[in-house]
Amino acid sequence: EYNINNKINIFLKRLFDLVTGLISLITIYPIVFIYSKITGNKLSRHTSKILQIPYVVSGRYSLVGYPIWFNSKEEAYPGKKGLTGLIQLYYYEGMTEQEMINYNIYYAKNQNLTLDLEILLKTIFTFLKK
Fold it and tell me: Is the pTM of this model over 0.85?
């Protein structure tokens, strides 16, 4: 049994996504949205993910999950697609599909709010370093 399929984890993950998503939607999203409309500049790959926050709030995506851009066998990817995740954090050019599956299986087996928070913080620190 994967942690990600545990009913309590599903509830807590959704609650975390909803609360964090709503806070981000109220605070960060408007700034990025207005900036992108006013300047017309193309946003960075990381910054553009902020514009996907309404999909997190609606439940279509999660903050942490497998990549939105990745299309593969759904059974290899339990859980929802996410704005960030282990694959997105550790992706490198030439990463094989099997490596991506391994990252996702690890995440699905070990998913909890602590791991989600760790992935989110690593994502933020990676973004701030650039």
Answer: yes
